Amino acid sequence: MSRAPALVLRQGDRERLAELARLPSVPSGLAKRARMVLLASDGVPNAQIARAVGVSRPTVIGWRDRYQQGGIAALDDEPRSGQPAEISEADVVVATLADDGRPPERLGITHWSARFLAAELGISFASVARIWRKWKIQPHRIETFKFSTDPELEAKIGCSQGTAETGNRMILMGEGAWSGPLLGL
Questions:
Q1: d(C-alpha 71, C-alpha 5), whole Å
Q2: Average pLDDT, stretch 126-142?
Q3: Which of 11, 51, 142, 144 is most solvent-facing, going by the fewest CB within 10 Å?
């Protein structure tokens, strides 16, 4: 069985490859490829590299070849084949924040949940949740007044004997006092 010669690195690449293999912020696939190239440059046999890194021998050979042809830049992921995603992040963000973040009254909810918005848009709730995380959107924390959907709210808080406005809050006075944000009407 023949042994592949040690891979000759380009000038300055050893330090950069060692950095790619070591840093936690580097995607794991790129770090693994950098480790393969470094081991190949040290003269380690392809089969041993494959066992150490957890890939097949043909994979090691392929990455050696890619490095030889294009250097470190060739170790990056290539664009994936297939149809691009049809979910528009902008549509999800706009739908979430439209009407001050309030869903349509017909749904009977005070704020969007990932499942309700997903059903409304016809996409998966995981996609909605992923987009919300990416854009740091938290519909339950949007600072607007939430109208209660409880039809018996008036009975529960008692007959209102009056209201008083203090700053940006409105206080309903009845049997039990309640205060909430003042509507910006």
A1: 17
A2: 88
A3: 11
